[in-house]
Design goal:
The protein is of the alpha+beta class and about 850 residues long. About 30% of the residues lie in helices and about 20% in strands.
């Protein structure tokens, strides 16, 4: 049984847009747009009729690479085009160039396939039959993977319902999972524009992929159940959708999230913060991770969410926002690593369980779960004066009202919708003049605040109507005056208690409504505000509630509704925000990644604060006290505060070599090497040519080497980081000469050995190890002792570090030991094992440790 390691990813998203691959250049794309030619010897069969269990034949194109075979197969089942299009041909080129057979099939009733087209339901059996047919072919090794987005993603999950053993892995992007909730009736309101333009327009002919109707211009037609016939489309499934506005037996088989226990397939789930199926993408990941039929499938779920709309990974620009070049990923490499692992026993993809793009910051970040365990859910309350704050209202009568006229609905402007001109983040300024929107804003934030996770709202509201809609939209107001939508949600009032049994309103009565605003990830900057807009329409994205209480699709009658939102002590309307604590940034890695303050146990932080408080209260500090207080800051991960403290001490003690030595050390930690060497050289000069053995005190209060030793140690490290290994070796030889105890001798010898090895002097490197014998009086549990014993051939390196334990679980001792062992493996030709250790080091949180600093430097240089 294969299982993915729950590890932090590093390499995968070093594979961002712009990396050139052997299989072609990385381009903005949703799925492989392979730019090369077909490999020599590919055998092709076009429009082969694969027979389904009811005798219907589906048109299928088959591509088999040259070679002996049999081959694993990648399958795409499509409704939008046949296999002759350039994009579909690129799929076949991509697969065969990488040792896969490729099968392209038109779904039932589409293009050259027989049968009648009806979305979703028929794909369950047709997908199963196709998988069985592929596995039985002589060119097939029995393993099938599927990929594709939107409908091409939905057919993957529908096929997986059968538990067909041939389906080994899938990569669904932007896929529905709960078809009632996310395809047709979000919050109980019909998804009008998307369902009309897709559900009607797609079936104008068997091959029609362009919509000949101006849907936005005709979408206000009433009653809705005559829209199709009026425009010349008599489509059964669209009429069926309108006839099933509640969550009933028509929709329940298509709640795939509720059927996770029937599926046993690993899945690479890809979504976008502005995708119409975002909620399903997240839901598929979370339910499969928890309830899938096998351990392999549960552990084999991965989630990637970018800043994309439904047309994903095609441009860094999404509506009104440029999310930067890093917002685009290398899809070909991503898919190849995924399928090679599951279908060819390839190397495990180096990816975390969850990978999200944090908008505002515009950076990718690895996470271990969704929602994030560290999330703090904070209610922000609506106030009658238009404020939005964490303070609960105290008034007993706070409320605001507006009038909702279905004949004059609020127009759709941005959000999770298919329509290209309306979707994504849009400046909400064009809606500012409307009086049927209530607006509530926070004060400007004075520090960065991250909102990452599911967002919901609780509204206490009354309406004069028997039925109506309430909608909430979360917006970020920028300092430049723009106001960008983040998330929004709706609840149709009759479904306030659930979507199976509608219940009309008693006009004028206050009810509590819970709205699901889906999810987002956004970093607010100082000066930003958050705003919540409340209204009752979002047209044409959602069908208007006509406020009559009648079946929404059967009536043209409209009623104007008077809506009241309560925001009082007894009815505290609020939005619940997922606030993720942000640790301060302390440094930037050599590869350009932010390095955040370590997570420190609360008890330890309290202990450090107690120790620091006495010194912080003093108006005058000695040199020793500056060093002691800075040490507490460093133990709490506060490198910048420590550097500032040393700087303040140097204002008071300008000739202090001790403060310079400590500050130089910490400049190396935060990757400011030029500042570090200035401090270290000045410290050396201030000590004089024949320095007295001034001892540095360790944490136990006992001498821990001389200042001369440590200045040379860090000068050696500076040179090592800059690739001047000869100078590094000279410095570490001085460390060896000035070591006052064996533990220091071992550490200095280790770095001297590594410097000489990298300087191309293995014989000299071997000689320096003679000073450290196996029975030396020292702490033999320390990492440096074990490293030296490995170099001397006295200790087997295998098993000294746990390569199965993900790097984010490694301790500081693990990464220190790991760096030396990785160097040993690399020097002895086992580069694969060495690289795995280097990767794990860079997954660990201990970015200030020397092993991490050096690995960070070397890996960033090798990447260039």
């Amino acid at each position: 049984m294969k299982q993915l390691t729950r590890r932090a990813g590093r390499l995968l998203f070093g594979l961002l847009f712009g990396i050139t691959l052997s299989t072609g250049g990385a381009v903005a794309q949703s799925f492989p747009n392979y730019l090369g030619e077909f490999p020599d010897g590919v055998k092709t069969t076009y429009d082969f009729g694969v027979e389904m269990r009811d005798g219907v034949e589906l048109a299928t194109d088959i591509y088999v690479p040259a070679g002996d075979g049999p081959f694993p197969t990648l399958l795409v089942r499509d409704i939008y085009s046949d296999g002759s299009t350039e994009l579909r041909q690129s799929y076949a080129k991509f697969a065969t160039a990488n040792g896969y057979a490729f099968v392209f099939q038109a779904a039932r009733g589409r293009h050259d396939s027989d049968g009648e087209w009806y979305p979703y339901f028929q794909e369950i059996e047709d997908g199963d039959d196709t998988l069985t047919w592929i596995a039985a072919q002589p060119w097939s090794d029995g393993k099938v993977g599927m990929f594709g987005s939107s409908y091409l993603a939905s057919v993957q999950w529908l096929a997986a319902l059968n538990g067909n053993p041939a389906l080994v892995a899938i990569a669904p992007a932007m896929s529905p999972g709960n078809y009632y909730r996310d395809v047709a009736y979000p919050g109980g309101a019909f998804s009008l524009l998307s369902r009309a333009s897709w559900g009607l327009g797609l079936v104008g002919t068997r091959t029609n992929t362009s919509y000949p109707v101006d849907w936005v211009g005709n979408i206000d037609h009433l009653p809705l159940n005559t829209l199709g016939p009026t425009l010349g489309f008599n489509v059964k499934h669209f009429q069926d959708w309108l006839e099933h506005p509640s969550y009933d037996d028509y929709w329940k088989p298509l709640n795939l999230e509720g059927r996770a226990s029937e599926m046993g397939v690993p899945a690479l789930n890809i979504g976008g913060w502005y995708d119409v199926f975002l909620r399903s993408t997240i839901g598929s990941y979370t339910t499969m991770s928890r309830e899938a039929a096998t351990v392999e499938a549960r552990e084999g779920q991965r989630l990637i969410i970018g800043p994309w709309p439904h047309g994903w990974n095609r441009s860094r620009q999404n509506a009104d926002v440029d999310f930067g070049a890093d917002s685009l990923i290398d899809v070909e490499r991503l898919l190849l690593e995924w399928f090679d692992y599951w279908m060819k026993d390839g190397e495990e993809p180096d990816m975390a369980p969850v990978r999200i793009f944090v908008m505002g910051e515009n950076r990718w970040r690895d996470e271990q779960e969704w929602p994030l365990a560290r999330t703090q859910y904070r209610p922000y309350y609506l106030h009658a004066d238009g404020a939005l704050s964490t303070e609960k209202p105290t008034s007993q009568s706070g409320k605001q009202s507006y009038v909702y006229d279905p004949a004059k609905p609020v127009p759709t402007l941005g959000g999770n919708i298919m329509e290209a001109t309306l979707r994504g983040p849009h400046d909400q300024g064009p809606l500012d003049a409307r009086t049927d929107i209530l607006r509530f804003s926070t004060q400007p934030f004075d520090q960065p605040v991250e909102i990452t996770g599911p967002v919901s709202a609780e509204l206490y509201a009354a309406s004069s109507a028997k039925d109506t809609d309430f909608m909430a939209k979360l917006i970020v107001e920028k300092a430049d005056g723009s106001a960008l939508n983040l998330v929004d949600g709706v609840i149709r009032a009759r479904y306030r208690e659930g979507f199976e049994e509608p219940e009309l309103l008693q006009p004028g009565k206050v009810y509590k409504y819970t709205l699901d605003l889906w999810a987002t990830s956004y970093l607010l900057e100082p000066g930003d505000r958050l705003r919540v807009d409340i209204t009752s329409s979002n047209f044409p994205r959602l069908a208007r509630n006509l406020n009559t209480g009648a079946d929404f699709a059967e009536t043209s009658e409209m009623v104007v509704a008077n809506q009241t939102i309560w925001m009082s002590a007894g009815h505290p309307s609020n939005i619940i925000l997922p606030v993720v604590p942000r640790r301060p940034q302390e440094a930037v890695s050599f590869s350009g990644e932010p390095l955040l303050r370590f997570e420190i146990d609360e008890a330890r932080l309290a202990e450090l604060a107690k120790k620091s408080s006495g010194l912080e209260a003093k108006s005058f500090l000695s040199e020793d006290e500056y060093i002691e207080l800075a040490g507490y800051y460093i133990d709490g991960g506060r490198y910048r505060d420590a550097i500032d403290l040393y700087t303040g001490g140097l204002d008071q003690y300008p000739d202090s070599f001790r403060l310079r030595r400590h500050r130089g050390h910490r400049y190396i930690n935060v990757r400011e090497l030029d500042k570090a060497i200035v401090d270290l050289q000045e410290a050396l000069a201030l000590m004089g040519e024949n320095p007295q053995p001034v001892f540095q005190r360790g944490k136990d209060g006992q001498p821990h080497g001389t200042y001369e030793h440590w200045v040379w140690y860090h000068i050696g490290l500076y040179n090592y980081l800059n690739g001047d290994y000869g100078a590094a070796a000279d410095a570490y030889q001085k460390c060896v000469d000035t070591a006052t105890k064996n533990d220091l001798l071992i550490g200095a010898t280790d770095w001297l050995f590594n410097s000489l090895m990298k300087d191309g002097k293995p014989a000299e490197a071997a000689r320096v190890l003679e000073a450290v014998t196996a029975d030396i009086e020292a702490d033999r549990s320390r990492a440096y002792y074990k490293r030296v014993m490995v170099y001397k051939g006295l200790l087997d390196p295998d098993g000294l570090v746990d390569l199965e334990k993900p790097g984010y679980q490694w301790s500081g001792g693990d990464i220190t030991l790991g760096y030396g062992i990785a160097n040993w493996y690399a020097a002895n030709g086992d580069t694969e094992k060495a690289q795995k250790i280097y990767d794990n080091i860079l997954m660990s949180p201990w970015w200030g440790a020397w092993a991490y600093v050096v690995t960070d430097r070397e890996q960033s240089l090798s990447a260039k």
